[in-house]
Design brief:
- The chain is of the alpha/beta class.
- It has one domain: TIM Barrel (Alpha-Beta Barrel).
- It contains twelve helices and eight strands.
- It has helices at about 20-25, 35-45, 60-70, 95-100, 120-135, 145-150, 155-165, 180, 185-195, 215-230, 245-260, 275-290, and strands at about 50, 85-90, 105-110, 140, 170-175, 200-205, 235-240, 275.
- An eight-stranded parallel beta sheet has the order 7-6-5-4-3-2-1-8.
- Helix 1 (about 20-25) packs across helix 10, helix 9 packs parallel to helix 10 and helix 10 (about 215-230) packs parallel to helix 11.
- It is globular.
Length: about 300
Amino acid sequence: MILTKTIPDFATPVHVDQVGIEERASRFTKRSIKNETKINGLMLALNMIDLTTLEGKDTEGKVKQLCYKAQHLHDAYPGLPTVAAICVYPSMVKTAKTALGNSGIKVASVATAFPSGQAPRDIKIRDTKFAVQNGADEVDMVISRGKFLEGEYNFVFDEIAAIKEACGEARLKVILETGELVTYDKVRKASDIAMYAGADFIKTSTGKISPAATMPVTLVMLEAIRDFYYKTGKKIAMKPAGGISKSKLALHYLVMLNETLGEGWMNNEWFRFGASSLANDILMQLMKQKTGVYQSANYFTID
């Protein structure tokens, strides 16, 4: 339950040091990660992926195939972890839930008129309830960026709170669509609003516009999570999504996560990657570490 007295005045301006954030983010890419540490990092990143298909042409067959891949990432490499979740549209939740069975892999569903968010609140609430009733463990909602950019912060707060209530036991990921917010100041303010309104995760992007996730934007959001934790004692999870397709970049994100939030966030309960092509790149890197040679992309399923 959010206590009213803990909610800050969102009309108060927020100022993020752009130069400082970008300089700190670039530092995380200078770390050298090799040998066993690299393998452990790749395994962890693989286990943090929300394997995603969000296309208008999605079919039950495609979703079933993705669920099979989630459970059999590369049978030639025994002992691999599974991904964290499969992310689909609400209409495909039941299909994914059945296909995943007792695998332990979560089913996440986008909702609230994804990706635009341009729909009345009652429709967004029905969309959310439909996903949950069909078995979604997690809901990825989009904020109303137009309202946010008009300064209607209470509207955005109330909408997130209403969707959180509609989620019931499902965890709520709140997508800021940072590429449309443009500035770090706005990203920080949107992060704060989402967390105080009840978000379980804050998420950078839908993956439908560019730029999507970047390391500086993610750092702004991680620092917001850290500050929120210091003020409230409540942990919030983070999900950068879109544009993270290479394992080397994923490892840089994990370095940033560890050095900003610490060991307690270094698992898939508290951090996710919204990506699909990343999984294959990680698998190629793991096979390279194991065998000394890269396997052809033909050895891996196409998402």
